[in-house]
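Researcher: Go.
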Amino acid sequence: MRIRRHDSGMSLVELMIALGIIAIAMFGILSMILHSMQTKETMRELQLAKEAVATKIEEIKSHPMQLPTAAPADMNSVYQYYNLNKTFRVDGLTDSRLITPDKRAIGTVLIDSNNTSLYEVVVTVEWNGRKGPGRFTRRSLIAQ
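Model: Structure:
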């Protein structure tokens, strides 16, 4: 009399197919996690740039508002002060394009004083982030 074996368990082919499906699913999940991490870093960089620009605009607005004078050393004029101090460094943002040892991103301040009682202030921060160069600009008006 022959003893019949019942096939129980999985064959090697079934196991390979199951592992292939699991691997494809894991690659999809890993890709999603990496993409969300890159997006988070990009949003962090943008938030740092927004905070730096807003802080600089508030600093300019808190500066005493005086008309520009003929004296070049008159630092009481907001226009002349920020015309000499156009750039500032932004903590937390790096720019690898810079050749200086300090790789912090640079912000610039431009003040248009064509109208003597209303200044247009433009503050820009540029950096080289995870997804390439980034730039954030904000304009504000300051009335005397």
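Model: The two ends are 109 Å apart (CA to CA).
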